[in-house]
Structure formats: C-alpha cells, structure tokens
Design goal:
seven-stranded mixed beta sheet, alpha/beta
C-alpha cells in the first residue's frame, strides 16, 4: 500500500548541472518525513544530462513525478506543479539548492496556526557580499537575505497556492508572499533547514547586482 502524500515538493529545472540537481533530489528523498511527492518541472532544459535525470526519476518513480514543457520561466513552471500536486501542503526547492534532512518535518511543526510560512536559510557564500541581494523596490540598493522572501523557503497549505499564482519577473517569491499576507495567516520563521547556494555568479540576483553596480559595505 502506497504512503499517502502529505507534502508536494515542487522543483523547476532549467539547464542545471545534473550532479547539482541530483544533490537537490537526494536531499528530498532523504527526508526524515517521507509522506511527500517530488514534482520536477523541466522548463525546456537543453544542456543538462537528461538521460541521467530520467534514470534517477525512474529509480524513484514511487516518489517522483517528472513533467517537461517548453521554456516558460520558473513562475509558470511552479504554477504547473501546483496544478499537478496532490499534497495537503506545498513547498518549493530550487534545483541548485538542498534541504537538511529535517526540513519538511520542521516546516510542518510550524503550521499549527498559519496557512503559509517562509523561513531564513543556511546560506553558502564565497564572500560577505553574497549575503546581500537587490532590493525589489530599488534595484540599486541591497538588503540582507534574512530580510527577503525566497521561493524555496515557502511552505504552505495547498489552498494558498491554488488561490495565488506566481507571476514572472524578479522577486516573484516576494510578490506571492505579499499577496498571501492580505488573505491568509502567515509568518516568517528562523528554521535554517533550507541550504541556499548563493555562490553562483550566474544567478539572477548576481546578474542584477552586477548590472546595477551594487557593492556591499
């Protein structure tokens, strides 16, 4: 008898190196809470090792759902994942990040009086500057990661994600959270069970920082 799905983990994938994607997938498979499904939405990747990815998916097809569509962006990919999800709760994992083994269970414990949470992260950096990202209200300024909302740390009841679509563009995660604030009980928590790799020079945040010549103090 299959284990019922309590949590749907959504991962949008676009050209991420397979070894990095495998690290992310394994961090979900190795959770101390196992009532989950992992939905991978391949957003039209063309440079990753798809054969290796599909072998990994097939080896864990009791836990993993794989969807592929033409390139549409992370927001649309996550929205499609929501439509295909079965869990009572939904959360997200970026394909180049990972969970600590207690991430899902830690998030669940925070949900007794709210519909949506976001959390702070354990952040992997090369320099202190990596702790700062563009302020969505003024891209020429920077704010500390602990002050922002990140896709991967969102965790909430499915009806929240059914009610609010992610919209494309920079800070889609923050815009989603702001909309949820006006409709549902929400809170930010200091779990640090999500491992966020900020030492990626090609990330969206890094690119915007370079374009706006943002240098931390």
């Amino acid at each position: 008898m299959s284990i019922p799905v309590k949590i749907s983990v959504l991962m949008s994938l676009y050209n991420t190196d397979f070894d990095v994607t495998k690290r992310a997938i394994n961090s979900v498979l190795n959770q101390d809470f196992q009532q989950f499904e992992l939905i991978i939405i391949d957003d039209g990747s063309y440079t990753n090792d798809r054969e290796s990815l599909l072998r990994l998916v097939e080896a864990h097809e009791d836990k993993i759902v794989y969807i592929r569509h033409r390139n549409q962006g992370q927001a649309d990919s996550i929205n499609r994942g929501v439509l295909n999800s079965q869990g009572e709760f939904i959360t997200i994992l970026d394909s180049d990040d990972e969970y600590k083994s207690n991430h899902l269970s830690a998030c669940l414990r925070e949900m007794h009086d709210v519909d949506l949470i976001c959390s702070t992260t354990e952040t992997i950096v090369d320099s202190q500057d990596d702790y700062y990202v563009p302020d969505k209200n003024d891209l020429s300024k920077h704010i500390h990661l602990d002050e922002v909302i990140l896709f991967g740390t969102l965790f909430g009841r499915k009806h929240v994600f059914d009610a609010i679509d992610f919209e494309g563009g920079f800070a889609a995660d923050s815009h989603f959270y702001e909309k949820a604030l006006s409709q549902f009980p929400t809170k930010k928590v200091a779990l640090r069970t999500y491992i966020y790799y900020r030492n990626n020079p090609n990330s969206t945040c890094s690119t915007i920082k370079k374009e706006n010549l943002i240098i931390s103090d």
